[in-house]
Specification:
By secondary structure, chain A is of the alpha+beta class. Helices cover 32% and strands 33% of the residues of chain A. Chain A has 3 domains: 105 residues, Immunoglobulin-like (Sandwich); 183 residues, Rossmann fold; 83 residues, Four Helix Bundle (Hemerythrin (Met), subunit A) (Up-down Bundle), CATH 1.20.120.1690. The chains are: A alpha+beta, B alpha+beta. At the A-B interface, strand 17 of A face loops of B.
């Protein structure tokens, strides 16, 4: 049985008249077990591979190999299916005529599925909404599958009417999780990030076909390690208070504020998807009414719930003090993740400005990103930024845009922008 | 099966009930008794009534009770589930209502980290006892000691005063002796609660008001006070502080100046192992009409020292319900900053004004 714990990092002391409470809550899961093996319903995996005409021979060969390698990672007994996607989606395994279906993994199913993947042939366009919708109906064909996860690989951008993909994402949200990978550099980071963020997955670039197999294996291995099918972050705040934001800040920045569903009048629920043995950090900002010096009150109860069971709870407090030594300190965790959240925004906004030809804004924002990456010790971000800008002064954030930038490096910087590092102890 | 009585509030509870429906405290008597408090003697008392607060109640009982700020439920984490206010411990905020006309509130205030004030009340038909002790905050364990002392003093005062030889003078002497006995019992309890090895022994003030028919007897050591606030009459402070400020006042310094001076809160007498002596100042007064008796610690009177100022706060509270008045007085002191622990114990006197007024002192 999985166990959860919650630890709160904050400076609970507010100055006279202070109203805004910030806290980092680290939620840790242990004993998660294996997906679909904990007695709380079965797990289902769907591999979705782009088979549009744009897939070159090398990419297609690598995609087949990667999808076959992913099959090897799916634990026996797990329901699975394989979808090929072009301007329409096709269920290539299991091959049934009666409609959408999934079958439990075993040696024979793995071998037949592998053969089906080997027959992938590139043709047609790219209509990702149909891929997501078919995945949804395939999952729905097996009611006992309660933990649903898909891997989506594409090499190009969506070719559908504006809105079709958004609607499909809306239908899939809260129903299945999806990790997205883009092969090469002809796909849109923003598009896949939209899918992966809504569907509680990851997004990354696979610049070279040779890297594809390892990425697929890792994604599938991570998914099979998630023995907790679904959990909800719950945030209770006192009557009359206001939630400023609720963000996941580690392992990646993900703003959950607008995904609140009401649990009761004072408690909101936020989706977190499936859990493996792991830690995630959440940044919660609450505005409460100021109280008199010396008063203490609870600003938030941050809970991790499975179904209706609260598995762990962290208490975020507020105590008003007229001792400026107490109130002036910013908690190091709060400061660290505030910086990392801004870092993600600066990278994304800087790259967007660069793409639209606004060199001045791009230089300022990416310069600030360089400064924040240095301040918060995010070496991965610094090294990825280095491939896009010349750094004159890291501390001051003085940079120049590089004249020639490898497209894959720029996309890698973009996809990794939300990845955060933990505070150095 | 018979119904049982809640040891905390005296309400009748259904047989087999785990918690009191009235006050929410656990039933069943498994609360550990405080060692320095003697066994209950109420059963021996001729005036023992169901409204008594018994002695065996634990210092820190647990159990759900509503949020003091908004009335919401308090969660198992100790915070209100509606407004988030931190629920004080039973020691940091407690209330007693031994009869419909007697109530008290003992509160940590805002600035102090614990409540070293203590209070013990008793009431039956026509008789009320208000005991207030204020633990000295720079001594060790004075929160434990003050509560033990308050309960010990109350226990001495469970029976009505003796009448002496029948003459007014001998009755006054007999009453003075009982009040002095109460102070000594409180002192013994404070000393018993003090670690013998302590280099900073617990100490506390002492103030008692006993109402018996028309008689109001009072006693004090230190600077906790008893006021008499007659309806429409002139309010009076009955007790005289044992404090540096009082000495200055007696030397001619105006009260407002003396009580705000640096040394104002230095008390010249107290209970405790290092107490100079345990001779309370005592006095008696015959009440001739309706009004309020208020016993309080300096956490309240710091913000309303003059009898008229206390009377004004009582009037401002605008309530005839004793618990509501005590709560209002504590809320007033907290609104002024709550710089010290606050105790306000009140008794509502309703009687006809036909009796002749005679005051005596010792």
């Amino acid at each position: 049985m999985a166990e959860f714990s919650a630890t709160v990092y904050q400076n609970e002391f507010l100055p006279d008249g202070g109203t805004d409470v910030n806290a980092i809550v680290t939620v840790t899961c242990s004993g998660a077990g294996t997906a679909g093996q904990t007695g709380a319903g079965s797990a289902g995996e769907i591999i979705i591979v782009d088979t549009s005409g744009s897939m070159g021979p090398d990419t297609m060969a690598a995609a087949k190999q990667a999808a076959q390698a992913a099959l090897a990672e799916i634990v026996d007994g797990t329901y699975f299916a394989v979808i090929s996607g072009s301007n329409r989606a096709q269920l290539v395994f299991p091959q049934v005529r009666s409609g959408p279906a999934m079958v439990p993994m075993d040696a024979q199913a793995r071998s037949y599925a592998s053969e089906a993947i080997g027959r992938f042939h590139g043709s047609g366009g790219t209509a990702m909404s149909t891929w997501l919708d078919l995945a949804g109906s395939v999952f729905a064909s097996v009611p006992e599958v309660t933990q649903r996860h898909a891997i989506l690989l594409t090499d190009g951008e969506n070719r559908e009417n504006e809105g079709a993909l958004s609607e499909a994402i809306g239908r899939a949200t809260g129903y299945f999780q999806c990790d997205c990978r883009g092969a090469g550099t002809d796909w849109q980071v923003e598009e896949l990030r939209r899918i992966s963020q809504a569907l509680l997955g990851t997004v990354d670039i696979i610049p070279e076909p040779a890297q594809m197999q390892a990425q697929f294996q890792e994604m599938m291995r991570n998914s099979m390690a998630r023995g907790v099918a679904d959990a909800q972050l719950r945030v209770w705040t006192p009557q009359g208070s206001q939630i400023l934001f609720v963000r996941q800040v580690s392992p990646a920045v993900d703003d959950l504020t607008d995904r609140r569903v009401e649990v009761n009048a004072l408690t909101g629920g936020y989706p977190t998807g499936a859990w493996a043995d792991e830690s995630r950090d959440y940044h919660v900002g609450v505005r409460v009414a100021a109280k008199a010096i010396g008063q203490e009150q609870l600003a938030a109860r941050v809970q991790l719930a499975i179904g209706e069971n609260v598995m762990a709870q962290g208490l975020v407090k507020a105590t008003w003090s007229n001792n400026s030594e107490q109130t002036a300190k910013i908690d190091p965790q709060v400061a660290h993740y505030t910086g990392q959240t801004e870092l993600a925004a600066m990278i994304q906004e800087g790259l967007a400005a660069k793409a639209s030809g606004d060199t001045a804004t791009a230089t300022t924002k990416l310069g600030r990103a360089v400064q924040l990456a240095a301040e918060t010790g995010n070496e991965e971000a610094t090294s990825k930024l280095r491939k896009v800008v010349e750094i004159d002064d890291e501390k001051e954030g003085t940079v120049r845009l590089k004249a020639a930038v490898n497209k894959a490096d720029e996309m890698a910087l973009d996809t990794a922008s939300t990845k955060t590092t933990r505070i150095k102890k | 099966m018979t119904d049982t009585t809640c040891p905390s509030c005296g309400a009748v509870a259904a047989a087999g009930a785990k918690f009191c429906e009235s006050c929410g405290k656990p039933l069943g008597g498994d609360a550990p008794a405080t060692p320095v408090v003697p066994a209950a003697v109420d059963e021996l008392s001729p005036i023992s009534a169901p409204t008594h607060r018994k002695i065996a109640d634990s210092d820190v009982p647990s159990g759900p009770r509503p949020c003091l700020s908004c009335g919401g439920a308090v969660g198992p984490d100790g915070y209100c589930e509606t407004c988030g206010a931190k629920a004080p411990t039973e020691r940091d905020h407690f209330r007693e209502t031994p009869a419909a006309w007697v109530a008290g509130v003992c509160d940590r205030g805002i600035v102090h980290s614990r409540n070293e004030d203590a209070m013990a009340l008793l009431a039956s038909e026509g008789r009320a006892v208000l005991v207030v002790l204020d633990g000295v905050s720079n001594s060790i364990d004075s929160d434990v000691a003050s509560l033990a002392g308050a309960k010990a003093a109350r226990d001495v005062l469970t029976t009505p005063f003796p009448h002496g030889m029948g003459t007014p003078a001998s009755r006054t002497g007999a009453i003075t002796k009982v009040l002095t006995d109460a102070a000594n019992a409180a002192n013994d309890a404070v000393v018993a609660a003090t670690d013998p090895a302590s280099t900073n022994p617990a100490s506390a003030t002492f103030a008692v008001a006993v109402l018996e028919g028309n008689l109001l007897a009072h006693a004090n050591i230190g600077d906790s006070r008893v006021y008499w606030l007659p309806d429409g009459g002139t309010p009076v402070q009955l007790t005289v502080d044992d404090s540096a400020a009082q000495q200055q006042i007696e030397a001619g310094v105006p009260r407002a100046v003396a009580e705000t001076s640096k040394e104002a809160h230095a008390i010249t007498k107290w209970l405790g192992r290092d107490a100079p002596d345990i001779e309370p100042r005592t006095g008696q007064v015959e009440l001739t009409g309706p009004g309020w008796v208020v016993a309080c610690s300096d956490g309240l009177w710091n913000y309303a020292s003059e009898p008229g100022a206390i009377a004004a706060q009582v009037a401002a509270a605008g309530t005839a319900v004793p618990l509501d008045l005590a709560l209002a007085l504590v809320a007033f002191a907290n609104a002024q900053g709550g710089r010290d622990n606050i105790t306000a114990a009140v008794a509502r006197v309703e009687q006809n004004a036909s009796e002749p007024a005679t005051a005596g002192g010792a």
